[in-house]
Design goal:
single chain; 454 residues; alpha+beta; OB fold (Dihydrolipoamide Acetyltransferase, E2P); Chloramphenicol Acetyltransferase; 3 domains; four-stranded antiparallel β-sheet
């Protein structure tokens, strides 16, 4: 009996998605609850499991096509044999080398050695058996692993495939750590860092056979272009940013903050904090605490406009902007004002990691009353962040840089950071915006006030 793969509910206010990647090909066996494809929505990438075990008999929607909730993506022909997930590879004790034909033991000169284990989730029954009496030869294993490596690449994201192609890498040589044997971006970067010497260009006298593979250089004078379809997430980001510009009266106010005390405090207690709480003490938790303190004093900065009404919010859900390969994502820390430094650091680290690996849920990116973005991690000295609608303000952090400043009539060198706050001038006046940013500055320069809430 055929079972349909259907687009599930995608979350509040999300009605469409794009088929990002089919992880199984038509005709392949699938197990019940095994992930068969990924959908990309406006906010996140969702994994769609198989509703039953069997064979993927039909793929009705191709990669890159848009679908609505309830649409049929494909069909699985049920079978009892495929109802259980493929077992891990467990090699049986090998026969002695003396009892095997030479073709099954000796590898050709320069050929890679056969490995004793297969990538996770592969079915040993799929290994071809071309040797005498249906035995597995070295060539059978090499062919099997080559196909498995290619499948791992196809199941990986477009950023991984581009990275592999750009560097001319052999996927079979890259250890895959992702789910279902997928190669992740970190796997490729780790491989490149470990093999940088081997990938370096060979001397001119070296044989072409030992030169590292790589993309062929473009002919002199070639004007190369590439046209790539925008992802759904990138299209949504573009639309929302333009909507923010068209709707809100965006202004930005600036200040600078002396980070000396926070840096010293962090340096003094960093090891003790990590030992006790199991998470590193960063700068972001200080800024979240300072923002919440300032929002309590300036409630209009935490408000939003809905129609002809202003909605004041007396809870503090702080969005933290995270840059990912897929685009900018803003997971939200709920009730940030009720959380300790350790709780904030732990949640920030968890949300950022899951934003980058695509495992955030839609609920974790919805809502938010105020956002913080840190362009300083990329070396930015100053910027004007854009609003995250329907929020009315956003704080931009920047690079910490030692600069000379005047303190009590004397020139001193201090680690300084520029702060930028963009706000919707329709409801926040200049006085409120400047007062808010000055309050954040005061709390960062005097973090003991954060503890005492004064």
């Amino acid at each position: 009996m055929a079972v349909e793969i259907v687009v599930p509910s995608l979350g509040e206010s999300v009605s469409e998605a794009t088929v990002a990647t089919w992880l199984k090909k038509q005709g392949q066996a699938v197990a019940a609850d095994e992930v068969v494809l990924e959908l990309e929505t406006d906010k996140a990438t969702l994994e769609i499991p198989a509703p039953a075990g069997g064979v993927l008999s039909e793929i009705l929607v191709q990669e890159g096509e848009d679908v609505e909730v309830g649409a049929i993506l494909g069909r699985i022909e049920e079978s009892a044999e495929a109802a259980v997930a493929p077992v891990a590879w467990e090699p049986k004790p090998a026969e002695s080398a003396a009892s095997k034909p030479a073709a099954e033991v000796a590898a050709p000169a320069g050929a890679p050695a056969a490995t004793a284990s297969a990538p996770p989730g592969l079915d040993p029954a799929a290994v071809p058996r071309s040797g005498p009496g249906g035995t597995v030869t070295l060539e059978d294993l090499q062919s099997f692993f080559a196909r498995a490596s290619q499948d791992a690449v196809e199941r990986s994201g477009p950023a991984v495939r581009k990275l592999i192609a750009d560097h001319g890498l052999d996927p079979a040589e890259i250890a895959a750590s992702g789910r279902d044997g997928r190669i992740t971006k970190e796997d490729v970067l780790s491989f490149l860092s470990k093999g940088s010497a081997a990938l370096a260009p060979a001397p001119a006298a070296a044989s072409p056979a030992v030169r590292s593979a790589g993309p062929a250089p473009a002919p002199a004078g070639e004007r190369r272009e590439e046209r790539v379809r925008m992802s759904r997430l990138r299209r949504t980001i573009a639309a929302r940013l333009k909507e923010a510009q068209n709707t809100a009266a965006i202004l930005t106010t600036f200040n600078e903050v002396d980070m000396s005390v926070v840096i010293e405090l962090r340096k003094r207690y960093r090891e003790l904090f990590e030992q006790k709480h199991g998470v590193r003490l960063g700068f972001m938790s200080f800024f979240v605490k300072a923002v919440v303190g300032a929002l309590k004093e300036m409630p209009q900065v935490n408000a939003s406009i809905e129609g002809d009404e202003i909605v004041y919010k007396y809870y503090y859900d702080i969005g933290i902007a995270v840059s990912t390969d897929a685009g900018l994502k803003v997971p939200v820390i709920r009730d940030a004002g009720r959380k300790s430094f350790a709780q904030l650091e732990r949640e920030i680290a968890d949300l950022a990691a899951r934003a980058r690996d695509g495992s955030l849920t839609l609920e974790e990116m919805e809502g938010g009353t105020f956002s913080i973005t840190n362009a300083g991690v990329f070396g930015s000295l100053l910027s004007t962040p854009i609003l995250n609608p329907p929020q009315s303000a956003i704080l931009g952090l920047h690079k910490i840089e030692e600069r000379p400043i005047v303190i009590d009539g004397e020139i001193a060198v201090r680690p300084m950071m520029y702060l930028a706050m963009s706000y919707d001038h329709r409801m926040i006046d200049g006085r409120e915006s400047v007062t808010f940013l000055v309050r954040v500055k005061e709390l960062i320069e005097n973090p003991d006030r954060l503890m005492l809430e004064v």
